[in-house]
């Protein structure tokens, strides 16, 4: 995207991206692949809504419908929402804390490629005998009975991409702990950095139980183990516990970064310091903490007993308190501000009522007796789409508009952005609001069709029309991206004019070393402080201009991840009598992975230095080229 | 960082593992990884406890009937000793005494290999008794928990050996000191997990 990249040959650009360890390029890789999977998951959603458009529809068969709902949920959570948020974390967080890169640039690349190959592996199931069909929660009682290899694609694919996410989480934590610029104390960190920090801590502690659960699933189905096989003494509830010990923190892993993006937007476009910054930080930490104590509210109907249900019901209700604190802080940030309704701000304002609606239905379900009534109905579907779409997806769309100029150096069209917003926002409420009532009328979730005499026709039709609106909104966004890229009007450091944090003090896109001199941070909203004091450079520096140390690119992360991808095929066909080569494939795949780990360990990789003279030279050219590589 | 810079015991920093930014990052990152590993093993332990002694109807295998303490006690002592010898190795690393560090790491590796050999013998013994991986829910949980630990031992040994061979000619520098330190840290973690396995699986198993 830089001026020099365009001069390079196409092959060189591809090679550059395959081997990059630059957090900004990895962010672009996450954005593209996450965006791709978002479209795939959206397509699956459209097929669900077409099937449910009228009673007794036969657009999809019952079996295919199961595969599509499973893949819709799995794709949207693991392959769309998470990577899109990781894209913004990668693109923005190191800039916000004044760092030149993340703590482990090599691992950053490895994390991306593991996610990528895991996602590809999961989606190959469509072409290799059928997709998983036990729901995105993959309950063992269903999953063990599923024929074919769909479930195995799920377990192995998510294991691989889960490793990638875990690595990304550790990387961000260390980056924030160790690499903050001088003066950037914890209580001066921008809120998006804070939410990245807490979400990464949740990733660190929540993904291992999922990995273990997936391992059990793989061992049970492919290597003859008996963790969930009841006739062999196993227990299927173990899967449910492990899945939700991961699954509940997962929703906070998704929503917290979205909260962070909205916090930035409210402050920027109200031209005010965030109201109650300290309260917002502690609310974030509290949400992360409580997030681990509520998993069994997904299992009220399992029969854990009244004591367990009561404890988890109370814990669940308590989470509403820190979330409420946040909502009021945002409202009071807007209050009395000098507001400009740009596209990101419009998304942020629309987010508040949408998310509150989802939160309120969440508290309703926290009441265990009521949950017995609502469980497995469309009320639940409506609830979690209100928090995930009304919170996370609106956050991602807002972040896309907000950070597009910082990532690509050009602004998305505001006019088309508004069109996308209105289609998406109206479509979203049209689709999901009415599903609350469908649920209360008794429509169960995950059914592939319903009868004409059940009285659900009209509401389902309305819901499907809403989905069409959302699809139009997304298509307009795609058009917007293409037109913006073609026009390519370059923008300066602070295209919104009211940036408050360090990322807006440097060129868009930033040079690959981010900061020629490490900045000195003098308070919260450090760039705003400098602007208010009339500092033309936008920064004060903590060091004189000197040589800058940068990491080398490497192809090894890609090879390492590819090895896991190969090994997964070996594991997949391990028990098939017709495929005796499976064991060899498994060994070769693991050999590639561990072999490349060994090469990485034995080969010294000390990085390289950009000299002071080259930095000065680069600054003369505008400071946003790859010229020094 | 300059790999050719020569250090003496005097110029060598007190904490070479955290003397550079890379070292500091690795240090913090590795402790975080150990946190994730702790959750991993906690999940395995919880599953083991839930499935202990569970099997198909008529299954005769129980922890009380299967496990015998003498061999496992010997394994425990060997692994604990190897943790001690890795501490000696790190003591010499911090004093920039490369040869002594390599020697103690060598002893650590030998003890680790002995442990691994005994574990393989033990597993083989159970399989010969008819207690295989697919026999019951109990057997799957047992072999997965203890086997995952064994895989960690194998990985730790490979790590030690790779580091020792790679650096045998060039000695200690600021680039490899954090690597040695982290491998030793990993070894301690493996040891701590084994203490829990010894307690939860074997001692509590034999008591009933």
Structure description:
The complex is a heterodimer of chains A (629) and B (208). Residues 1-6 and 624-629 of chain A have low confidence and may be disordered. Helix content of chain A is 66%, strand content 2%. The two termini of chain A are 15 Å apart. In chain A, helix 3 packs parallel to helix 5 (105-124), helix 4 (62-96) packs across helix 9 and helix 4 (62-96) runs parallel beside helix 14 (378-408). Chain A is globular. In chain A, the strands form 2 sheets. Chain A has a two-stranded antiparallel ribbon. In chain A, strands 3-4 form a two-stranded antiparallel ribbon. With 629 residues, chain A is mainly α. Chain A has helices at 3-7, 10-19, 23-51, 62-96, 105-124, 140-143, 150-178, 191-222, 237-270, 277-290, 306-334, 343-366, 368-374, 378-408, 414-440, 457-487, 526-532, 556-572, 582-602, 612-620, and strands spanning 519-520, 540-541, 548-550, 608-610. Chain B has one domain (16-207): Four Helix Bundle (Hemerythrin (Met), subunit A) (Up-down Bundle). Chain B is built from 6 helices and no strands. Chain B has helices at 21-51, 63-66, 69-94, 98-128, 137-166, 177-207. The radius of gyration of chain B is 20 Å and the shape is elongated. The N and C termini of chain B lie far apart (57 Å). Chain A binds chain B through residues 103-104, 166, 170-171, 173-174, 177-179, 204-205, 207-209, 211-213, 215-216, 219-220, 223-227, 229, 231-235, 238, 242, 245, 598, 601-602, 604, 606, and chain B through 1, 3, 21, 24-25, 28-29, 32-33, 35-37, 39-40, 43-44, 47, 50-51, 54-56, 59, 133-134, 136-141, 144, 159, 162-163, 166, 175, 179.
């Amino acid at each position: 995207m830089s001026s020099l990249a365009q001069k390079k040959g196409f092959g060189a650009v591809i090679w550059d991206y395959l081997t990059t360890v630059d957090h900004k390029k990895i962010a672009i890789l996450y954005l593209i692949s996450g965006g791709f999977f978002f479209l795939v998951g959206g397509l699956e959603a459209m097929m669900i809504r077409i099937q449910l458009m009228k009673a007794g529809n036969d657009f999809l068969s019952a079996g295919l419908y199961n595969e599509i709902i499973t893949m819709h949920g799995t794709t949207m959570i693991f392959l769309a929402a998470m990577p899109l948020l990781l894209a913004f974390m990668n693109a923005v967080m190191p800039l916000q804390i004044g760092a030149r890169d993340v703590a482990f640039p090599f691992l950053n690349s490895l994390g991306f490629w593991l996610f990528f190959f895991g996602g590809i592996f999961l989606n190959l199931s469509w072409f290799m005998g059928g997709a998983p069909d036990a729901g995105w929660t993959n309950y063992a009682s269903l999953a063990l009975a599923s024929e074919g290899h769909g479930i195995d694609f799920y377990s192995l694919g998510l294991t691989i991409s889960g490793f990638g996410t875990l690595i990304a989480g550790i990387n961000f934590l260390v980056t924030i702990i160790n690499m903050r610029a001088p003066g950037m104390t914890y209580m001066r960190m921008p809120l998006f950095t804070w939410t990245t920090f807490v979400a990464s801590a949740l990733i660190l502690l929540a993904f291992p139980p999922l990995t273990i659960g997936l391992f059990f699933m793989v061992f049970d189905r492919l290597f003859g183990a008996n963790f969930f096989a009841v006739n062999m003494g196993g227990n299927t509830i173990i899967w449910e516990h492990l899945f939700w010990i991961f699954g509940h923190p997962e929703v906070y892993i998704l929503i917290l970064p979205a909260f962070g993006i909205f916090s930035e937007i409210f402050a920027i476009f109200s031209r005010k310091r965030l109201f109650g910054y300290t309260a917002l930080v502690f609310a974030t930490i509290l949400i992360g903490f409580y997030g681990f104590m509520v998993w069994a509210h997904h299992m009220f109907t399992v029969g854990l007993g009244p004591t367990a249900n009561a404890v988890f019901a109370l814990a669940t209700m308590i989470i509403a308190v820190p979330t409420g604190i946040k909502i009021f802080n945002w409202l009071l940030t807007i209050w009395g501000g000098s507001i400009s309704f740009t596209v990101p701000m419009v998304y942020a304002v629309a987010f508040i009522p949408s998310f509150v609606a989802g939160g309120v239905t969440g508290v309703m379900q926290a009441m265990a007796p009521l949950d017995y009534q609502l469980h497995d109905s469309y009320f639940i579907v409506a609830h979690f789409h209100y928090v995930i779409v009304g919170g996370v997806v609106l956050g991602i769309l807002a972040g896309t508009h907000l950070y597009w100029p910082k990532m690509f150096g050009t602004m998305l069209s505001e006019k088309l952005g508004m069109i996308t917003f209105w289609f998406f926002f109206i479509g979203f409420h049209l689709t999901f609001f009415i599903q609350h009532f469908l649920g209360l009328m008794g429509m169960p979730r995950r059914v592939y069709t319903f009868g004409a005499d059940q009285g659900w026709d009209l509401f389902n039709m309305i819901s499907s029309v809403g989905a069409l609106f959302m699809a139009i909104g997304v298509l307009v966004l795609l058009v917007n991206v293409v037109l913006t890229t073609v026009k390519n009007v370059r923008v300066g450091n602070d295209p919104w004019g009211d940036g408050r944090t360090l990322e807006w003090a440097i060129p868009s896109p930033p040079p690959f070393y981010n900061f020629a001199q490490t900045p000195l941070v003098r308070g919260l909203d450090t760039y705003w402080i400098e602007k208010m004091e009339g500092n033309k450079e936008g920064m004060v520096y903590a060091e004189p201009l000197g040589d800058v140390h940068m990491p080398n690119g490497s192809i090894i992360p890609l090879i390492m991840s590819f090895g896991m991808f190969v090994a997964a095929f070996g594991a997949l066909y391990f028990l098939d009598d017709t495929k005796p080569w499976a064991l060899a494939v498994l060994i070769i795949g693991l050999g590639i992975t561990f072999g490349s780990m060994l090469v990485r360990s034995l080969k010294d990789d000390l990085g390289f230095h950009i000299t002071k003279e080259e930095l000065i030279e680069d600054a003369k050219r505008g400071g946003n080229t790859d010229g020094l590589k | 960082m300059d790999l050719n810079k020569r250090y003496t015991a005097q110029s060598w920093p007190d904490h070479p593992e955290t003397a550079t930014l890379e070292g500091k990052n690795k240090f913090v990152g590795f402790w975080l990884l150990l946190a994730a590993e702790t959750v991993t093993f906690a999940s395995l332990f919880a599953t083991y406890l839930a499935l202990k002694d569970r099997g198909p109807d008529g299954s005769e295998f129980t922890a009380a009937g299967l496990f015998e303490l003498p061999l496992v006690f010997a394994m425990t002592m060997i692994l604990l000793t190897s943790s001690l010898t890795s501490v000696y190795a790190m003591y010499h690393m911090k004093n920039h005494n490369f040869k002594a560090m390599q020697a103690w790491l060598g002893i650590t590796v030998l003890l680790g290999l002995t442990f691994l050999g005994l574990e393989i013998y033990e597993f083989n013994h159970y399989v010969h008794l008819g207690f295989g991986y697919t026999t019951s829910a109990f057997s799957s949980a047992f072999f997965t928990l203890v086997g995952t630990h064994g895989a960690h031992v194998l990985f730790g040994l490979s790590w030690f050996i790779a580091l020792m061979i790679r650096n045998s000619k060039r000695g200690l520098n600021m680039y490899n000191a954090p690597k040695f330190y982290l491998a030793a840290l990993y070894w301690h973690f493996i040891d701590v997990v084994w203490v829990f396995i010894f307690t939860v699986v074997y001692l509590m198993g034999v008591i009933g």
